[in-house]
Design brief:
By secondary structure, the chain is α/β, with parallel strands linked by helices. The chain has a single domain, classed as Rossmann fold (3-Layer(aba) Sandwich). The chain has six helices and nine strands. The strands form two sheets. It has a six-stranded parallel sheet with strand order 1-9-8-5-2-3, with helices on one face. α2 links the parallel β2 and β3. α1 crosses α2. The two termini are about 15 Å apart. Bound molecules: 6-phosphogluconic acid (6PG). The site of 6-phosphogluconic acid has 14 residues, from loops. Pathway: Carbohydrate degradation; pentose phosphate pathway; D-ribulose 5-phosphate from D-glucose 6-phosphate (oxidative stage): step 2/3. Keywords: Hydrolase. InterPro entries: 6-phosphogluconolactonase_DevB, 6PGL, Glc/Gal-6P_isomerase, NagB/RpiA_transferase-like. It is an enzyme of class 3 (hydrolase).
Length: about 240
């Protein structure tokens, strides 16, 4: 089954941020026109920097945004490892988003409970009897091909019975996390990978060659579009795919 995949290679990291935020603005406008709400899922890592820089420049009805996490580290919000903590400090007060527009984990719970709790919180915004369908999921990818907190060889990559799964032994610190599972990721209307740097060129090539051993290679929206936005370094081997 071929996915509706679009690969965009631009020159620099700044160009990736511009391309990414242009796509976010368009997707948000279409979602708000269609559903009067914009349900977006954010990831951590370098994406936090891209959005901190780029989201300030977009035009959108911020009041219609509901912001979820594709994955989150189960650490206190004050911790430097908290993805929500980073977005809270870098976006709230900078763009017109309120804290209560973020659907956050309860970091005081162990990962197993935090995952169940997050499903309950998602169920407030999605019909309970079908898979949640995000308008947009923003994804990163590690040099090992992981995305969200779906790590190579980890059993939760095959998890299909829950919307959100706990991770207690993530190879990328911190070890305790929660993550959306593939059925939810692949039910999104749109997924965007924003990837930069020479360190990712080899793994990008492998993933775009559909190496399904790699979690990022299993992101294939069943009824949606998949975008890869790459800078010239991360896209160095594009011609080989
Ligand atoms: O919380 C996390 O760790 C992320 O959600 C994770 O999936 C991230 O997107 C990748 O590890 C890429 O991170 P970098 O872009 O920083 O390489």
């Amino acid at each position: 089954m071929s996915t509706n995949r679009v690969i965009t290679v631009v020159q620099s990291e700044d160009d990736v941020i511009q391309e990414l935020c242009d796509m976010i603005q368009i997707t948000a406008t279409n979602a708000i026109e269609k559903d009067d709400v914009f349900k977006i899922g954010l990831s951590g890592g370098s994406l936090t920097k891209f959005l901190t820089i780029g989201l300030q420049k977009i035009t959108t009805d911020w009041s219609k945004w509901i912001v979820f996490f594709c994955d989150e580290r189960v650490v206190p919000v004050e911790s430097a490892d908290s993805t929500y903590g980073i977005y809270k400090n870098s976006l709230i007060g900078v763009v017109p988003l309120d804290e209560d527009q973020f659907v956050k984990i309860d970091p005081h719970l162990p990962a197993e409970e935090a995952a169940k709790d997050y499903i309950q919180k998602m169920a407030v915004h999605f019909p309970p009897d079908c898979l949640p369908r995000f308008h947009l999921l923003l994804l990163g990818m590690g040099p090992d091909g992981h995305t969200c907190s779906l790590f190579p060889g980890h059993r939760i990559c095959d998890e299909t019975s829950v919307w959100v799964a706990p991770v207690t032994n993530a190879p990328k610190p911190p070890p305790s996390r929660i993550t959306l599972t593939f059925p939810v990721v692949n039910n999104a209307e749109c997924c965007i990978f924003a990837i930069t740097g020479a360190g990712k060129a080899e793994i990008v090539k492998r993933v775009l060659k559909e190496d399904e051993q790699l979690p990022a290679g299993r992101v294939k929206p069943t009824d949606g579009v998949l975008h890869w936005i790459l800078d010239s370094e991360a896209g160095a081997h594009i011609k080989d795919i």
